[in-house]
Structures are given as C-alpha cells and as structure tokens.
C-alpha cells in the first residue's frame, strides 16, 4: 500500500504534513506549527499519531509540539545537533539518520543554510521529501544562520533525489517566489506555465505544495544557479555555482 500524504495549512502560511502507513498503522506529522489543525485532521481520518518529525527549531515549526505530544504520546524526532533548542526528543538523530516507518525506510540528512541544524526527511520508496524551510516551492529559505555555500550544497543534495520525488516544504510562498523567478527568467516556458497554475490554485484557496522535484528543477532559480542562463541573467557568467546562488539569494532578500 502506498503511503498517504495530507497537507495541513497552519497559522497564516505554514504547512504541516501527515504521512500515514495503513499497513503498520503508523502516522507521522512533519513539523507542528500549532496542534489544533493536526489533531482535527487525525480525528477526521481515525488515525493515531505515532511520530513527530522536526525539520528545524523555528517556532512556526515546533510551537505546537508540547500540546500534540501530550494529546497523542507520539515519539518526537529531531536532530541531535539541535537538541538544545528543540522540545525534548525521544529520538535524537545523528548527522546521517535512519528510521523505519512500517516497512518503509526513512533517511534524514543535514540541509543547513536557513538554520545550521536544519534536516530533511526522505522516504525513497514513496518518493517523498520533507524539506521544511530549506528547498521550498519555487524558492528556498532565507539564510538566517548558514552561508550561501552551505545552502547551495544542501539544495544540490536535494536536487539529486529522484525527479519524481514530491517536495513537501513548510510555507505557502510560491506565488511571490514565482514573481521573483520571473524577474530572472521571464521567457522560461515551464515557469510561465507554473505561474498560471499557481495563480489559479491560490484563487481557489488550494495549496501550491507539494510539488515534484522535476518541476522545481525546471522553475526554481535557486536550483538553477549552475545553468549558463541563470549566470548570465545575474551578470555573473564566469562565477561559481555557489557565487551565483549567493547573488540570487541576495536579490530575493531585496525583492
Ligand atoms: Zn524557519
Ligand atoms: Fe518557517
């Protein structure tokens, strides 16, 4: 049986995700901006929460954990390296982590940049990746703690996953990310078409996530910093990929 995925809007523009394995009965939530919408989604489906997976320490990703853990007894999982600024962990992950989720293997790995302790969760056989505020829909997280080179390395690792991977990220920022992307690649046909689909989804109040990695590779300028078109677009035709990424990130910060 394939895993079931539920996208749950939280707060003003955050997303939490439920992953359910009907074979084992396990249900994980990735990030907990607030408990109430997650408890409601579990109740609607008669699912029992077994796992709480944390991507990074920001309040809009962890503030609902105490209430959710008290209500469900689910196991809290996060990066050992960030344990000092996360809620108490039942499972503290090493730098390259591995979990089992029913019969499914889950890999975790560092994706520093937005924060230094940020991690991603990848379920290879289900083609699911939970990227929090590292790789985001048509964008990437702001560099609050890490360097551009660190974030470029993180995005490059995510970019190498299977192109069918569904990228599940933490916020509804796609429309503004696409407006920015169009300033760099106004003639990119994949970007133009995505911009139309995103506008339609937002008009109907639908989430624009998750999105396939292949669509991200075709449209997300932060994944495209190694391409000659992008290097020329920012006036740095001979710069390194990480330098071009840094310039694109700096422009987005001012956008
Ligand atoms: Zn964050
Ligand atoms: Fe966030």
Question: What is the number of strand segments?
Answer: 14
Number of helices: 9
Total number of distinct structural domains = 1
Q: Radius of gyration over alpha carbons?
A: 18 Å
Question: In the CATH classification, which architecture applies?
Answer: 4-Layer Sandwich
Arrangement of strands in the largest sheet: 1-2-3-4-5-6
Sheet having the most strands:
6 strands, mixed
Unreliable sequence segments: none
Percent strand: 15-25%
Question: Would you give an account of this structure?
Answer:
With about 260 residues, the chain is of the alpha/beta class. It has one domain (about 5-255): 4-Layer Sandwich (Metallo-beta-lactamase, Chain A). It has 9 helices and 14 strands. It starts with a strand and ends with a helix. The model has no long low-confidence stretch (mean pLDDT about 100).
Give a quick set of tags describing it.
14 strands; binds zinc ion; Metallo-beta-lactamase, Chain A; globular; 25% strand; single chain; binds fe (iii) ion; six-stranded mixed beta sheet; 255 residues; alpha/beta
SSE blueprint:
Blueprint: E1 4-10, E2 14-21, E3 26-30, H1 36-45, E4 51-53, H2 59-62, H3 65-72, E5 75-79, E6 91-93, E7 97-101, E8 104-110, E9 119-123, E10 128-132, E11 135-136, E12 139-140, H4 148-159, E13 166-169, H5 174-184, H6 189-203, E14 211-212, H7 213-219, H8 228-233, H9 241-254
Parallel strand pairs: 3-4, 4-5, 5-6, 10-13
Antiparallel strand pairs: 1-2, 2-3, 7-8, 8-9, 9-10, 11-12, 13-14
Helix pairs in contact: 4-9, 5-6
Fe (iii) ion (FE) binds next to helix 2.
């Amino acid at each position: 049986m394939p895993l079931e995925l539920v996208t749950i809007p939280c707060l003003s523009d955050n997303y939490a995700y439920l992953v359910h394995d009907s074979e084992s009965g396990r249900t994980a939530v990735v990030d907990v901006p607030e408990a109430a919408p997650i408890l409601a989604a579990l109740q609607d489906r008669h699912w029992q929460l077994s796992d709480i997976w944390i991507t990074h320490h920001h309040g809009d990703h962890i503030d609902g954990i105490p209430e959710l853990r008290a209500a469900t007894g689910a196991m809290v999982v996060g990066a050992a390296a960030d344990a000092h600024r996360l809620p108490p962990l039942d499972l503290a992950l090493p730098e390259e982590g591995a979990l089992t989720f029913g019969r499914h293997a889950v890999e975790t790995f560092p994706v520093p940049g937005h924060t230094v302790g940020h991690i991603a969760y990848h379920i290879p056989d289900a083609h699911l990746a939970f990227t929090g505020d590292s790789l985001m829909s048509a964008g990437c997280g702001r560099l609050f703690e890490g360097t551009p080179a660190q974030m470029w390395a993180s995005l490059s690792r995510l970019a190498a996953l299977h192109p069918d991977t569904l990228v599940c990220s933490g916020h509804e920022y796609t429309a503004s990310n696409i407006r920015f992307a169009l300033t760099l690649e106004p003639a990119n046909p994949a970007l133009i078409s995505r911009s139309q689909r995103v506008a339609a989804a937002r008009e109907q109040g639908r989430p624009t996530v998750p999105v396939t990695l292949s669509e991200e590779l075709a449209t997300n300028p932060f994944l495209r910093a190694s391409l000659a078109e992008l290097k020329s677009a920012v006036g740095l035709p001979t710069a390194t990929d990480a330098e071009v990424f840094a310039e694109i990130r700096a422009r987005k910060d001012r956008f």
